[in-house]
């Protein structure tokens, strides 16, 4: 139980630092006219394609109609902007990664799982390249640590892409069922941990009367340079070459065998390649809890690896095989940039405990969405007996529940922002 609690806590910390990086990237893009111009240029083919060639796009994508969404229209391009906006609002307002909802949302909108994964990875990579923010503010990047870790991450991401493509070629239904299962497990763990964390924080807030404006951006106690028993045992294994790190934080620094770094990178890369996320939510617990890397070094190295891991997986495992829907990626990029800004501003006038509650609801909504879709997919594969009608009903129930919760959250954040514009502009004082 203690291990699960530690794992959940570190995963949340990783998601929060990733959210701060996304905010930095958004500020970098929106604060530079040249980058905005590039963004507009990238949007032109997406808009033109979505409007003028909607009927032909499915056959054009990847050269095979089977690689396309179940349907395509101008509406789905606008939906991608909405999905990006929702994910951005979660990231900016809650201070934790909203990327977890992108793949489930795309799949609910009719996009095949493998295309949702590839598109999400490309969206992350495009945002990182445009923002070009190598983490400097939140932590230090240990180049030797990052390089060795990335060797494993590239191997893992490649394996993840091979698994996804192999399952899709075997049977697209098996591919969707596999991705849905992975998301069900991951979102279930994170969602229930976030819920328990919220309930615990609410109880503590009632006792201490925590002030408003305390958001998850600064939540979580830094793990500093403390080290548990497992990291000590691993660092005691002297299998050369040894990689040195934390030289500025610990007298003499620390060192760990390259074998453990490559293995850790492979695990993170595998998750990124299969789920279509950056993998940062796993890097943090692995670095701090298993390898004994300080939080300061972990933060910088985590963001550093996300850029390269997502880029490698997006291009080498999905783009060249036609598993990226460019139009959707650009729509999500546009929506997320706006959502992150609105969400970040809303945190200035919203109690932090409320934001934590909404995050738990959002992640659990994604969990319900995938869990309710799973019986239908398992039935299609032939693993469980279930009628088409029952499977379709459950899947529809999950879709409605997901979008209702996320929409309510989005409307609440945007409404809070609009209501408090005078306060945010300094024309009023929030009582």
Would you write up a description of this structure?
- With 431 residues, the protein is mainly α.
- It has one domain (2-172, 201-355).
- Helices cover 73% and strands 2% of the residues.
- The chain is built from 16 helices and 2 strands.
- Strands 1-2 form a two-stranded antiparallel sheet.
- It is globular, with a radius of gyration of 21 Å.
Describe the main β-sheet briefly: 2 strands, antiparallel
Q: How would you spell out the order of helices and strands? A: HHHHHHHHHEEHHHHHHH
The number of distinct structural domains comes to 1
Shape: globular
Number of helices: 16
**Cα-atom radius of gyration:** 21 Å
The proportion of residues in beta strands is under 5%
Unreliable spans are 56-71, 210-224, 427-431
Instruction: Tally the beta strands.
Output: 2
Separation of termini?
Answer: 41 Å
The side-by-side strand order for the widest beta sheet comes to 1-2
Task: Find the structural class using helix and strand composition.
Answer: mainly alpha
The percent range for helix content is: over 70%
The average pLDDT is: 76
